[in-house]
Amino acid sequence: MRVALHSRFTPLALGAISVLAAACGGPGRDSGSASGTMSGAIRRCRATVDQAVGVAVSDYIRQAKPKPERFLVAAGTDSALGDAGLTALQDKGPTYLYPGDPAQQSQVRTQLHEKGDYTTLLVVRKSADKQGGSATVLLNGHYVGGEEEGKSVGPRRYTFACDTSGWHIKTTSAEHSA
């Protein structure tokens, strides 16, 4: 009788061990290997570099002094933030496109002035690179119009790590202007 009872629970016990092994990094887990090497972290990271830019922009704005009340985003240049960066700006306040052409910039400045002299920050992407489960983003910005005209927030470099929940800032550092 004892043998018959044991044989009924063996498939159930094996199934439970298999589930536990997969959850703990065993062969059933999508980790690239049974040892859970770094290549597993790379496979699990499905976040784009654009999403890293969005996280960096949110932090960049948070650290800006004085606090910006509205934002400009470069339009039609290699400094454009991308969709996630633009969304991060829009989440923080009114956001306007800032063209590369000086004549059009003058028109935008006039329109902004007519709406009020709010602290306005132009945020630009200098670089963004993703390699596997890590990314680096370099942002820069300066104030446009009002009392803060031309004041630089300064370049800031963000280094990210990625896991199944997305990008996480590992380090951030102020860069020296060249």
User: For this entry, what is the oligomeric state of its chains?
Assistant: single chain
Cα-atom radius of gyration = 24 Å
SSE sequence, one letter per element: HHHEHEHEEEE
Total number of β-strand segments? Answer: 6
- How much helix, percentage-wise, in residues? 25-40%
Largest beta sheet: strand ordering: 2-1-3-4-5-6
Q: Could you tell me how far the N terminus lies from the C terminus, measured between alpha carbons in angstroms? A: 82 Å
Please outline the major beta sheet.
Answer: 6 strands, mixed
Helix run count: 5
Shape: elongated
Ranges with pLDDT <50 over ≥5 residues? Answer: 1-42
Question: What is the average per-residue confidence, as pLDDT, rounded to a whole number?
Answer: 79
* Beta-strand share of residues: 25-35%
Which structural class is indicated by helix and strand composition? alpha/beta
Would you write up a description of this structure?
The chain has 178 residues and is an alpha/beta fold. It folds into 2 domains: 36 residues, no CATH class; 126 residues, no CATH class. Helices cover 39% and strands 28% of the residues. It contains 5 helices and 6 strands, in the order H-H-H-E-H-E-H-E-E-E-E. It has a 6-stranded mixed beta sheet, sandwiched between helices. Strand 3 and strand 4 form a beta hairpin. Helix 3 runs parallel beside helix 4. The longest helix is centred in the N-terminal third of the chain and has 22 residues. The radius of gyration is 24 Å and the shape is elongated. The N and C termini lie far apart (82 Å).
